[in-house]
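WARN  no MSA supplied for this record, continuing single-sequence
INFO  ligand: flavin mononucleotide
INFO  echoing inputs
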Amino acid sequence: MSFYKTVVRPLLFRVDPERMHDMTVGLSKWAGKAALMRLVMLRAYAYRDPVLECEVARMHFANPVGLAAGWDKSGVAIAGAGCLGFGFYEIGSISADPSSGNPRPRIFRLPEDRALIVHYGLQNDGAETIAPRIARGPRPVPLGVNIVKTNRGIDAPPDTDDAIYDDYLRTTRLVKDHADYLVYNLSCPNTEMGRDFFAEPGGIRGLLERLQSEELRCPVFLKVSPLGGSKALDRMLKEVDGHAFVSGFMLNLPPGKQVPLETPAHQWRDLPGAISGKPVEGLINEQLSELYRLMDKKRYHIIAAGGIFSAEDAYRKIRLGASAVQLLTALVYEGPGIVARINRGLCRLLQRDGFASVTDAVGEDHATS
Ligand SMILES: Cc1cc2nc3c(=O)[nH]c(=O)nc-3n(C[C@H](O)[C@H](O)[C@H](O)COP(=O)(O)O)c2cc1C
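INFO  complex generated
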């Protein structure tokens, strides 16, 4: 048992989850202000080994374990939390206009399941505030910016197709020169807008056609739903085909409570939101494997998140087809030491199986099955 789990976590878990989240982001923001503090954090948390270095869609990562979108929603803590040993760091989702997200409470812990119920609803400071912030700040590791349409709340009138696309474009123009990669979140499980726009035929193609003229120089990923199996993936791949600036994919959380839970139903039945963490791992791994099987492997890369708590979990996703992985929920349950532990374990697993690098192991389960 780590110090974090025996001493720190019980104290933190007494605090309301959103307050605790804000406090830890605030602490990282504060720690990132001093160069000495950043150095101390790097020494304490970063684990380096040449075996872990990887090239993903023209980017170089010192290791394949990144921070997933949703922790640093408005890019305030990049300098500090970027020193926790991650190979890359994703902020957002951010939208063209600021959004206060869904009503509180909007995040809940399910410790028995090592899961969270997430219902933030895309709260962020808005691209006009965030773009200058990320342009001027130090960036310890490659930075991803995750873009979504502004959540205007449950009472807002439905947006037209053009308004949806325009929202993505406005953010793109503001941030595209300050990101190492962009992610288009096309599947947030938690907005109240009631319309799964990008699941409708032509929805993705429409966005990509508009992005085509933006001359995006950094790699672009699409974060899509993990539901729908090969049919949904096949349709998505067809819509993306012909848009050479798309470098790959990520899989989002499934909406609602579609995964088996240990926690008694009366504790979560009435809570709004989607499940993250361990319970979604199986479902996401299935869709990851299917996506890897269907996609053009020379062209696309997958960055996969969902229930990674150990080196074995990360390694499984890599062998199923992920070029790199991300985590968020494990940071809450295991503390920041989790990143180095996963990287150390990955070195051991790669060595055990005779791989000279992470990249050599990508999709290996498909080669042997
Ligand atoms: C508190 C929280 C907030 C999240 N917010 C976002 C978000 O704004 N945009 C997004 O693309 N994904 C968001 N996600 C999804 C994560 O990026 C990730 O895909 C998912 O949680 C699976 O990883 P995990 O099981 O390691 O948490 C959020 C997840 C959590 C737990």
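Residues 68-70, 73, 92-93, 107, 116, 118, 120, 122, 146, 185, 223, 252-253, 276-277, 280, 305-308, 327-330 surround flavin mononucleotide (CB under 6 Å).
INFO  checksum written, moving to next record
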